[in-house]
Structure formats: C-alpha cells, structure tokens
Write a structure and sequence with these properties.
The structure is a single chain. This protein is an alpha/beta fold. It has a single domain, classed as HAD superfamily/HAD-like (Rossmann fold, 3-Layer(aba) Sandwich), CATH 3.40.50. It contains eleven helices and seven strands. A seven-stranded mixed β-sheet has the order 4-3-2-1-5-6-7, sandwiched between helices.
Amino acid sequence: MSSIAVLCDFDGTIARDDVGNLLFRTFADAELTTPIVEQWKKGIISSRECIEREASLTNVCREDFDRFICQRKLDPYFKDFVDFAGRNGMEVVIVSDGLDYYIEKMLMRTGLGEIEFYANIMQLVNEKIHVRFPHYDKLDCRDCGNCKTHHLENYKKEGYYIVYVGNGLSDRCPSTCSDLVFAKGELLEFCRENRLNHVEFGNFRDVEREMLNRFVLGDSLGGREEVGGL
C-alpha cells in the first residue's frame, strides 16, 4: 500500500469561512475590493495581484485583526480527521493561497499547530497588510500567489498517493494532478464538468468516512476509482 498524502485547501475547506475574502471585505472598502475579486475570477488578473491590490486597500490594527480571527471557526470534524490520518500513517498538509497569519492562529487555537502548511506570508505594519509570496512559481504558474500544484508534485515525486480536498477556484489546477479529489462548491462543479476522479463532501467527517472505507477497511489503492460522489 502506497503512502497517502492528504493536501487540503484552507479557506472554505478547513475553515468554515473564506477567511481571506472576508478579511478584505471587513477591513477594506467593499466597493473597491469587489471589482478586483471579479477580475481574478474572470482570469484577468492573478490571485497574487488580487491579494496585493486588496491588501493595499486594507487598514486594520492588530487587536481588531486578532479579534476577527477569533470569530472564525474550523470545520468541526477537521481535528478528528487529522487524528484519524495520524493513526493510519497518512500525511495531512495544508496548501493555501491565503495568509499564514490567520491560518497559524486558527490552527494553534485548535491544538493543531503541528500541521505543516504552505501559504503566503503576511506582516502587519502600521495597520497596513504586507504580503510576501515565497511559493510563487515564476516559470510554470503565474495564476497563483502560492502554487499548490508545485507542492503536490513534490509529494508525488516522493511516491505518495495524492488525495486533494478543496472547494474553490484555486483548487482546480491541483485537482487535475491528484489521484483522488474531495470536492464541494466551485471545485465540485469543475470536477463534474471535467470528469475528474472525485467524491462530493460536506465536511471532514464525510472525508474520514470515505477514506476509512477505501483505504483502511478496503486497504487497497489498486487503480483509479470510478468518478462519483457520496
């Protein structure tokens, strides 16, 4: 049986909210940020440019920012899923085109600070958000601030069977390179349209149940599964 790496999106997948989007809508002028997001959704600008432009319009003190983060919640079954994965020798990794500041705080608050994650790096200076993109792929991918497929390919090179869990536009590219995809939201529509090997899910209890049946009780990675949903 091959080792399994479960790569998970954060905003709207592990976190109940799209925290990054909600952050900019809360602390910046929505009339200015909404057209920027629409340009990204239409493919006119990259997510990196979208984040940079939204950040430049945002003003927030650290106290208000931390209070905002404290109000955000994770999927109630994610911690149980991480425990399940650990018991069964599966790697759980977060790949996000969001900001490390809120991801780390939300994970630490839930007792999940040990989980490896890749995200864009944020600093708050004089109530202005500054973002660095250490995982930006200048050669092969100019659509994302953090190229999720780049991280996925690194795990694939190590021989992992790749399970991807996501919900949004930034999850489309890595979903095409995964062995199995758990999808909801816009990603679910994309998987259906492109007949990708996927399972529809609502929360991480669904993911745990399906992986238990496929990879623990069934104990088989023999070939690609049929396209379908729960």
